Amino acid sequence: MTNYEKYLNVFVESFSVSADDAVNLEYQGIPEWDSVGHMGLVAAVEDTFDIMLDTDDIIDFSSFVKGKEILSKNYNIEF
Amino acid sequence: MLQGKNAIITGARRGIGKAVVEVFAKNGANIWACAKNFDDDFEAEMVKLAEKYKVQIWPVYFDLLDENQIKAGVSEIKKQNNQIDVLVNVAGIADESTSFVMSPLEKMKKVFDINFWGGTLLTQYVARLMMRNQTGNIIHISSVAGIDGILGQYEYVASKAAVNGAGVRQLARELWQYGIRVNGVAPGIVETRMGGQISDSLKRETLQHVIMQREGKPEEIANVVAFLASDLSSYMTGQIIRVDGGM
């Protein structure tokens, strides 16, 4: 499984959405991605990629696209 | 009392932290014993304790003044994939007593940075891991100084008052939704290196106001921490227990 597939899968499983919907998701764009859902997403991302996100990155993680950018830029995860 | 629980304990090298490690081990807890710097004696002591009480003790090293080290320390703990049940924030410092008007800001900030912000950052990382399991137990070692004040220790009093207000009372409110309890223990004068920094005259004067007329022993503080870490205190959160011989 590629890193992109793993990342996509985290969203699909965390929020029970389709892959097509996942790529357009934004924080608080759906009821499931509220502050509680956000911490669940963070936990899933951390476990999937074996990292610990900085608090600033957790705050900045505001969409599917932004999250991918953060992981790539700050945690050397290649997509 | 703590059989099967896994606990992170900071300030494990000496004083109250060391006593907490021993009491927790005695009661069956596995421990991440956190200290600032690696040394062979500390490692050997932890191995000895682990063998004596048939528990696991993993030394972890990080400096509470260094954000990256704190994060690396928690990452190391996380990699073991053991549920973290308890965090005990013991590590802290007190500088020599000086008059408020003669206290340089930098000196005061350093005490506050270690006693409050260092513990806060560690708690933030660990709470995130506890939240996943919807359970956890955080215990801060505060001080009666944070409640009553103490002469010549403006920054220490400020840092411990912050621990009481934000670290204990505020966090207890915020973290219970994730099943995490937060409490504090406020020791009085204790037979530790930090207790030894109090001038003899001030110590004598303070002890006159202690009902039991003596200093506390580190293990007497550790026993209360163990109670708070156990299920015996399951209906307690947001509390600061004074362990001060009656001040």
Fold topology:
The complex is a heterodimer of chains A (79) and B (247).
Chain A: H1 3-15, H2 19-22, H3 35-49, H4 55-60, H5 64-75
Chain B: E1 6-10, H1 15-26, E2 30-35, H2 40-53, E3 57-61, H3 67-79, E4 86-89, H4 105-133, E5 136-141, H5 145-148, H6 154-175, E6 180-187, H7 200-207, H8 218-229, E7 240-243
Parallel strand pairs in B: 1-2, 1-4, 2-3, 4-5, 5-6, 6-7
Helix pairs in contact in B: 1-8, 3-4, 4-6
Short description:
Chain A is mainly α and 79 residues long. Helix content of chain A is 63%, strand content 0%. The termini of chain A are close together.
Task: Name a few traits of the molecule.
heterodimer; A: 79 residues; mainly alpha; Non-ribosomal Peptide Synthetase Peptidyl Carrier Protein, Chain A; 63% helix; globular; B: 247 residues; alpha/beta; Rossmann fold; 8 helices; 46% helix
Description:
- The complex is a heterodimer of chains A (79) and B (247).
- Chain A has 79 residues and is mostly helical.
- Chain A contains five helices and no strands.
- The radius of gyration of chain A is 11 Å and the shape is globular.
- The model of chain A has no long low-confidence stretch (mean pLDDT 96).
- Chain B is globular, with a radius of gyration of 17 Å.
- Chain B has helices spanning 15-26, 40-53, 67-79, 105-133, 145-148, 154-175, 200-207, 218-229, and strands at 6-10, 30-35, 57-61, 86-89, 136-141, 180-187, 240-243.
- Chain B has a single domain, classed as NAD(P)-binding Rossmann-like Domain (Rossmann fold, 3-Layer(aba) Sandwich).
- By secondary structure, chain B is α/β, with parallel strands linked by helices.
- In chain B, helix 1 (15-26) packs across helix 8 and helix 4 (105-133) runs parallel beside helix 6.
- The A-B interface holds A 39, 42-43, 46, 50-52, 54-55 and B 71, 74-75, 78-79, 124-125, 128, 131-132.
